[in-house]
Design brief:
about 150 residues, Rossmann fold, 6 helices
Length: about 150
Amino acid sequence: MIKILFVCHGNICRSPMAQFVFQHMVNEAGLSDRFEIDSAATSREEIGNGPHRGTVRKLQEVGIPILSHRARQVTKQDYEQYDLLIIMDKENLWGIQRIIHNDPAGKIHMLLEYTGDNRDVADPWYTGDFDTTYDDIARGCKALLEKLI
């Protein structure tokens, strides 16, 4: 089983969107028994909160199921438990390293690196543009899944 943790700053916009999109892709491919997928935050600001209404609205618009979710912060134990920790931007790298300290197993990757694009996933918290964020995440998740299978 491949265990993937998607990580962003607050765990209410990008990382749960990536979790739900990737889970949907995995389910559609008939591979749900091969993956464990979750998401977490580098900060504590949104702990306990559900997905942002913009994330929910966008996923409903494209027909992707909204899963049960409450924001949580990534832990050192997550590094041991998960095979991949997929971050949304360079700031998340700083945040996750502050918690786990280093990445000796090379588990931390930016989502868009799987598309050959080494840029951040657009952050809708600041822009309100959940369409661009969804496009980035869908491209990244598709490329990640293709790499893993």
